[in-house]
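Hi team, as promised in this morning's meeting, here are the two structures we talked about. I've kept the exact order from the run log so nobody has to guess. The first one is mostly here for context; it's the second one we should focus on when we meet again. Sequence first, then the predicted structure tokens.
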Amino acid sequence: MPMKKARLSVYLDKDILDGLQAYAARHNQSLSLIAEASIAAFVNPDEREAALIKRFVRLERSLLRLERDNRITGEALMVFVRFWLTTAPPLPEPAQLAANATSAERYEAFMRALGQRLAKGPAAWQEIESDSPNSGG
């Protein structure tokens, strides 16, 4: 026959009790279950630390992926700019003057297009990834 749980009476500040009740209601759990789990985490800090370490490891992996993706994006942009600068012929003088006159307008159009593209999703790199022969798509 399983051991019956022992009863414990505690006095809590009103704010703590309100927080406990709100948390229990949000998670649709009993006050006893939430209190027991909280006390267990307090009494057995190794379990709590293990959970935190696991979370930190996941966060670290995510940050490393973001860092890698950011480096790839920067490199791709630099390669593109270098390629464009070395292959695009300079504009003749009259065309340069016209281009300078409309540069602010073209920049605004570019920024609008970029904003629309970012709001639209999926990202261009996701489209490229799904089109690549190694992606299986």
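And here is the second protein, the one for discussion:
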Amino acid sequence: MFPLRFDVAGTSVEVPVRTLLNAGYAGRSQDDVAAHVAELAELGVPAPTRTPCLYPVAPYLAMQTADVPVQHARTSGEAEWALIIAGPREEDVLLTAACDHTDRELEVHGVAWSKQAGPDVLGSRAWRLVEVADRIDSLTLTADVGGRRIQHGTLGELLTPVYWLEELRKLELAEPGTVLLSGTIPMDTSVDQFADSWRVDLGDPATGDVVSCEYAVRQMPAPIA
């Protein structure tokens, strides 16, 4: 088990991660998702057999870090929210900002493989889902890379946390220690995603509060082999 620690309204909550899942092709409009799948197929990314998708990845890839080492220059993040089941009660389900750092070279060989090749970076602060559930679609999701805005939208563009909680129940994974990342929103293709830093903000316009994750991307030395 790999513990994460969250500041939840001034209280520290520790969560040993048992199960880590990455949602994919998880837009609210599945017609838009189908168009996106077709675009990716033209780039060589294998099409899924169904949407939305759910990719299990190693629990140790759930991290709260300011530094992500990578093996080459073609890796990038994705603005997402993360659902964290911290305990057995409804109020123990948490929501925070997250960034799924993905190996884009490996992605053309298999999306699941690419998810396993990089970490899921989560914020250190979180909200209780019950406290924002009534306005979930108005929450904002924003990503900046190297100081430039590359993603901006609302959670109304993605399948909801409640949808994924129901899916987790069907899979018998709605238990303490499960972490699920939401899938992402469209990127501005005019901005270079292969930057040396990523920041994701999850904002609540009703309160002005923002939870964030931010890290530098550091390319490791070439292998000696």
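Starting points for discussion:
The radius of gyration is 17 Å.
The chain has five helices and 17 strands.
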